[in-house]
Amino acid sequence: MGTKRTLVVGVGSIGERHVRCFQRTGRATLSICEVNENLCREIAERYQISQRWTSFEAALNHEHDLAVISTPAHLHVPMATRLAQHGIDLLIEKPLSTSLAGIDVLTSEIDRHDCMAAVAYVWRAHPMFQAVKRAIDSGRFGAPLNLIGVSGQHFPTYRPAYRDTYYTQHTTGGGAIQDAMTHLLNMGESLAGPISELVADAGHLALAGVEVEDTVHVLTRHGSVMGSYQLNQHQTPNETSVTVVCEQGAVRFEPHRGRWRWMTERGGSWSDESCELERDDMFVNQANALLDTLADKRPLLCTFAEGLQTLRVNLAVLRSVESRSWQSLEAD
Ligand SMILES: NC(=O)c1ccc[n+]([C@@H]2O[C@H](COP(=O)([O-])OP(=O)(O)OC[C@H]3O[C@@H](n4cnc5c(N)ncnc54)[C@H](O)[C@@H]3O)[C@@H](O)[C@H]2O)c1
């Protein structure tokens, strides 16, 4: 099998990581498209990339097998639609978009040109998350009943440029709901099925220099499974945990400790399995999983349909915060 000609569109914070991590697979030949000329040149030099463009239309004039869309979220759908029209397979960064505008056209272009399309909810590439999902899907702990997701991070420490990026506005994919809570909700949907109803509260409590929400609480129903999620982007600990209480035990994913754990005896102790992982490793896993799908049609980690479902959830969370009311996704 030859390497896949892989175009990364937008090489800011996450796009550069995709360049590095696709290169690390040894299975992709990279090219880049970035409107910021200095950044485009810098990244091309840093990763010894010979093909680079500062205009999306110019990049479209060349042949690519795969494109990784790493621009701000309001650009994902128009760019994905143009790429699909050229028959190029797609990995689209999360969130899929900031609205449902253009989704029908994109879906029909993906179908018409028989493109593969995945959404980059990267936690699904974490081996310990995959262990949790396998355990739950196998029925080892019985049916899920209740899901509790808790996450927090000091955003200025990890993303110091947040005041100058898409993060400042909802319309470009900003705020804690579309930026970070969407990861937690997508993990919940992967483990407990699609969210059917939700109610949410959110506010701006601490992040300097922006007005978007930095703290979010969401109560969900995934059919009969009840969920509760909370997240902020200003606390000092950098911690995430997703607990699924099942009929015959509880299961927990704790990426900050690189482990998953389970408890089946009432009031007993946890059993743990862990692995050592650098942050890039998840992205290398995600890239390899995608290239595996292209090679032998193995299932995608997060399909376009699953990314679209989580987009509907993001939008329902935003509506719920605005209207202070429950939202049904079944009516969407
Ligand atoms: N999966 C993750 O863990 C993760 C982490 C961070 C960001 N993201 C997502 O990735 C996306 C990008 O986030 P980021 O933090 O890298 O943002 P960023 O602002 O650092 O980078 C975006 C880049 O896109 C470029 N760009 C804008 N318009 C363009 C165009 N028309 N053609 C080519 N390039 C263009 C910008 O110049 C910029 O360099 C967002 O949707 C964000 O939510 C995902």
Describe the structure.
There is one protein chain. This protein is of the alpha/beta class. The chain has two domains: 4-122 and 285-301, NAD(P)-binding Rossmann-like Domain (Rossmann fold, 3-Layer(aba) Sandwich), CATH 3.40.50; 124-273 and 309-328, Dihydrodipicolinate Reductase, domain 2, CATH 3.30.360.10. Helices cover 36% and strands 25% of the residues. The protein has helices at residues 13-25, 37-46, 56-60, 76-85, 103-112, 127-138, 155-158, 175-192, 279-296, 304-323, and strands at residues 4-9, 28-33, 52-53, 66-69, 89-93, 117-120, 144-152, 197-203, 215-222, 225-232, 239-246, 249-254, 259-263, 271-274, 327-328. A nine-stranded mixed β-sheet has the order 14-13-12-11-7-10-9-8-15. Strands 3-2-1-4-5-6 form a six-stranded parallel β-sheet, sandwiched between helices. Strand 11 (239-246) and strand 12 (249-254) form a beta hairpin. Helix 8 packs across helix 10 (304-323). It starts with a strand and ends with a strand.
Tags for this model:
332 residues; six-stranded parallel β-sheet; Dihydrodipicolinate Reductase, domain 2; nine-stranded mixed β-sheet; binds nicotinamide-adenine-dinucleotide; Rossmann fold
